[in-house]
Amino acid sequence: MESNNLFSLEEKWEAIVTCDHSFDGKFFYAVKTTGIFCRPSCKSKTPHYKNICFFNHAREAVQQGFRPCKRCRPELLIDSYDPQQEIVEKTKLFLEKNYEEKITLDTIAVIIGVSPYHLSRTFKEHTGTSPHEYLEQLRIQKAKNLLMNTDHNVTEICFQIGYKNLSSFYKHFKKSCGCSPHQFRLNQKKSKPPV
């Protein structure tokens, strides 16, 4: 079994058993019986101690013929990998590309490949908002940009950013900005220096 001089074998084993994130990027371990290598924080079933070997770098494990774990993604050139963060990033990307469409939590969950409950809970834990609240914030940001940089009327903007009716748009805009879309546009024009 190879040893990384920075940590004893006991420290490494303890890190694996406890799935300690603080050791990620400092060493990797491979399971001889499965042919897979992992980060110390991997949530996979704890292997038998006699079946593991340690590596300082992911490339060393690959050179020895081990495959990267699909759960903890040790081959990625980042110190730690959080699969939950990947769910959040994919959700944000989907919302940013499709904000003008009618989007439900179920739709997003199918696209991302997780249950609606898991998606909602994970997104809120990582961002502090629900996917729906994030979508509303995104739409309001797009509306503000259109109000400041185009001559489109409020009704056109409302439908361009994905709202199906004006009252819902006004309600969310006022809640976010403290004024109506029309007032927001007037305030922006007043604050712009003359050319």
Automatic annotation (TrEMBL):
SUPFAM superfamilies: Ada DNA repair protein, N-terminal domain (N-Ada 10), Homeodomain-like
SMART domains, alphabetized: HTH_ARAC
Pfam family, one: HTH_18
Cofactor: Zn(2+)
Organism field: Oceanobacillus luteolus
Family matches, as PROSITE patterns: HTH_ARAC_FAMILY_1, HTH_ARAC_FAMILY_2
Name of the protein described by the UniProt record: Bifunctional transcriptional activator/DNA repair enzyme AdaA
Keyword match DNA-binding: yes
UniProt entry keywords in alphabetical sequence: Activator, DNA damage, DNA repair, DNA-binding, Metal-binding, Methyltransferase, Transcription, Transcription regulation, Transferase, Zinc
InterPro entries associated with the record: Ada-like_dom_sf, Ada_DNA_repair_Zn-bd, Homeodomain-like_sf, HTH_AraC, HTH_AraC-typ_CS, Me-P-triester_DNA_alkyl-Trfase, Tscrpt_reg_AraC-type_HTH
Domain annotation HTH araC/xylS-type: ranges: 89-187
